[in-house]
């Protein structure tokens, strides 16, 4: 027996699915831009040296460098930044379409209204963070907040896609284990977000290679670390943070915190997965209707762990590092999907 029944999709489903996929592209492009050190490829916003595209001709470059004498034109870094902005701008338009669709169909039963409006507000805030990322010269606090905002936008679009999908889950039978599962799944979202935050702090402070070996760090179980400096959120605004400003011991502290967080996240998610796989629901002939969602979390967890290890062993290759950022986003989506299944509602 199927754990859900298909009903008519709500208006806006395909548009929301497209927006979700485009949000994935934005996350990937953002990671790529950071990893190739192109975050300041254009010293202004929303244009690039005052142009709508990256200046490439001799005359354009001469004019651009006269306007921004402290920022020599690097075409190979300008284009990743501008492409990221173009795609993010397209996402804004798609989300605006979702808001218009929601307003038009607000009287339809079960049609979300506040959800797309909230996403639109968040994505406008994301645009502001994108501007501050440039104008504040990659200030780590803003860069990390910008990354988290992108993950939040993607997560909310994914959740809205599920709500519009036309798949009405059959209610899970109330049992003593269901409440605990819902609590564990909700806590898992917090744990994964905290680990993603640590990953963002590593990226914004250029600490990914602070520990070039595994399982040790610089040949030690517990190397010299400065957590006070590494997690000081009062860093001054003003200097150019391209390449990072922290000392080695502070970067090691950030990197080790991410490793410890990875162990905690792995153990917690394995606990959630095992509990989910043991769940039996009487309303679907004793089958486990959340098994697929739990296995999706397990798969993404294993992939993310492999990518994290590969980053260290192979000295942060660009393709693997970008995939690790994407893997973090997909792991979060898989946990959200499990939460959605557990938090079934009749509407």
Features:
347 residues, 64% helix, 2 strands, flat, 10 helices, two-stranded antiparallel ribbon, mainly alpha
Low-confidence stretches: none
**Overall morphology:** flat
Helix content: 55-70%
Q: Reading side by side through the largest sheet, how are the strands ordered?
A: 1-2
Distance between the termini: 21 Å
Tell me about the largest β-sheet. Answer: 2 strands, antiparallel
Rg, alpha carbons: 22 Å
Question: Structural class of the secondary elements?
Answer: mainly alpha
Helices and strands, in N-to-C order?
EHHHHHEHHHHH
Please provide the count of β strands: 2
SS summary, helix count: 10
Overall pLDDT, averaged?
92
- What fraction of residues sit in β-strands? under 5%
What does this structure look like?
Helices cover 64% and strands 2% of the residues. The chain has 347 residues and is mainly alpha-helical. Strands 1-2 form a two-stranded antiparallel ribbon. The longest helix has 31 residues, at 248-278. It starts with a strand and ends in a 5-residue tail after the last helix.
Summarize this entry quickly.
The chain has 347 residues and is mostly helical.
């Amino acid at each position: 027996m199927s754990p859900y029944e298909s009903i008519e999709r709500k208006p806006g489903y395909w548009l929301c699915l497209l927006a979700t996929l485009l949000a994935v592209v934005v996350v990937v492009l953002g990671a790529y831009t950071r990893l190739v050190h192109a975050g300041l490829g254009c010293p202004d916003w929303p244009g690039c040296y005052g142009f709508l595209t990256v200046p490439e001709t001799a005359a354009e470059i001469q004019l651009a460098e006269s306007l921004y004498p402290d920022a020599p034109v690097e075409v190979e870094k300008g284009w990743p930044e501008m492409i990221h902005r173009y795609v993010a701008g397209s996402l804004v338009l798609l989300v605006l379409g979702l808001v218009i669709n929601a307003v038009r169909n607000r009287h339809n039963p079960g049609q979300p209204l506040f959800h797309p409006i909230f996403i639109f507000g968040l994505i406008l805030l994301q645009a502001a963070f994108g501007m501050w990322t440039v104008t504040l010269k990659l200030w780590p606090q803003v860069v990390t907040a910008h990354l988290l905002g992108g993950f939040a936008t993607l997560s909310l679009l994914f959740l809205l896609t599920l709500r519009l999908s036309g798949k009405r889950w059959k209610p899970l039978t109330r049992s003593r284990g269901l409440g605990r599962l819902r609590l564990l799944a909700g806590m898992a979202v917090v744990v994964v977000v905290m680990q993603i935050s640590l990953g963002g702090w590593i990226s914004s402070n250029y600490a990914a290679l602070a520990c070039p070996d595994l399982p040790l760090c610089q040949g030690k179980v517990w190397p010299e670390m400065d957590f006070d400096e590494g997690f000081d959120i009062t860093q001054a605004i003003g200097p150019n943070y391209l390449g990072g400003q922290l000392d080695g011991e502070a970067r090691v502290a950030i990197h080790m915190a991410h490793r410890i967080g990875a162990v905690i996240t792995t153990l917690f998610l394995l606990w959630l997965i095992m509990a989910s796989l043991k769940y039996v629901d009487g309303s679907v002939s004793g089958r486990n209707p959340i098994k697929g969602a739990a296995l999706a979390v397990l798969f993404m967890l294993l992939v993310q762990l492999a990518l994290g290890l590969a980053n260290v062993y192979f000295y942060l290759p660009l393709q693997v590092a970008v995939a690790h950022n994407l893997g973090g986003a997909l792991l979060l989506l898989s946990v959200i999907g499990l939460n959605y299944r557990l938090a079934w509602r009749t509407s």
